[in-house]
Design brief:
- Helix content is about 40%, strand content about 25%.
- The protein is α+β, with helices and mostly antiparallel strands and about 150 residues long.
- The mean pLDDT is about 90.
């Protein structure tokens, strides 16, 4: 079931973020796994949250799961992805503690928006997200065209 929509939230002084109810209702720990995986992403200074099952099902760069001799670029990509990913558990109040170094790396403010992005959630600066809302909407058609072109190439 894809994650859709958006919800405003805040990161507290202990780096905890309460997962908004609209997203928790789509998450089933039995189906999706009991933990989340957080990956800082350089474009747009975002934190990506994947359910345990989704994260485990994805492979970096199409690599074979048991490859002992990946190319150097693939080895570097795997190190960057997995080395920067942290596993997060929900506490009794449905909060995850975001790694302080993730927050510093992407310069995440306390006021955020949690975005449903299909197979993941994204945590973004509320101010940046709101400031770019109209531009994202206007550019949607062009983005679809670029993605379609990349798939054809």
């Amino acid at each position: 079931m894809p994650f859709t929509g958006q919800a405003e939230a805040s990161i507290d002084a202990k780096q905890r973020l309460a997962l908004p109810a609209k997203f928790r209702s789509r998450w089933d720990p039995e189906r999706d796994g009991k933990t989340w995986f957080c990956l800082p992403w350089p474009q747009d200074a975002v934190l990506r949250l994947y359910t345990q099952r989704q994260f485990e099902s994805m492979r970096v760069g199409g690599s074979a799961p048991d490859e002992l001799t990946p190319t150097q670029d693939l080895a570097d990509l795997e190190s960057a992805i997995y080395g920067n990913t942290e596993q997060l558990d929900l506490d009794a109040n449905n909060r995850v503690r975001l790694p302080a170094w993730h927050l510093e790396l992407v310069e995440m403010p306390r006021d955020v928006v949690v975005i449903g992005a299909g197979n993941r959630l994204e945590i973004r600066s509320r101010d940046a997200w709101m400031a770019q809302r109209e531009e994202r909407f206007r550019n949607l058609r062009h983005l679809v065209e670029r993605v379609d072109q990349n798939r054809r190439d």
